[in-house]
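Lay summary. Proteins are chains of building blocks that fold into shapes, and those shapes determine what they do. In this project we predict the shape from the chain. Here is one chain we studied, written as its sequence of building blocks.
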Amino acid sequence: MKTITRSLLTAVCLLLLCACAKSAAEVDLAADGADLDLTRLSSTMIYSEVFNMRYEPEGYYGKVIRISGLFSAYPNPETGEYYYNCIIPDATACCSQGLQFFPADESLTYPDDFPENGTTVTLVGTFIENEQNVYACSLSDAVIESVGE
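And here is the predicted shape, written in a compact code that computers can read:
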């Protein structure tokens, strides 16, 4: 009888723990001032979380996000203005998605003040609504914390 009671209590506790699980956006992954530090997640989780950020952005607006990915810059063919992005490949490197970012220091110019395209960067910025972006989100006031690999 004691074994059955313990088993039932264990099962109930596990169910309660599972029911209380949170998504990565809800879990405190903060480090050094970021509300959400995606650099601490596996490549699969980072890709999944960025997918969520792009397709259901409302829960992320206003959060400070730290993310690592591949730097990408390209000019708008009509205006010549550069768009900056952090590209996140999936675990198998067959697909990628990215987040556009706006540098905190508006005096920076491309290519002089930025890494080469394809360079791994870690950046921190505030997740904002951006109606000009097809996914309606970007990182503003972004700072490139590190450049490597």
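What the prediction tells us: Residues 2-19 form the longest helix (18 residues).
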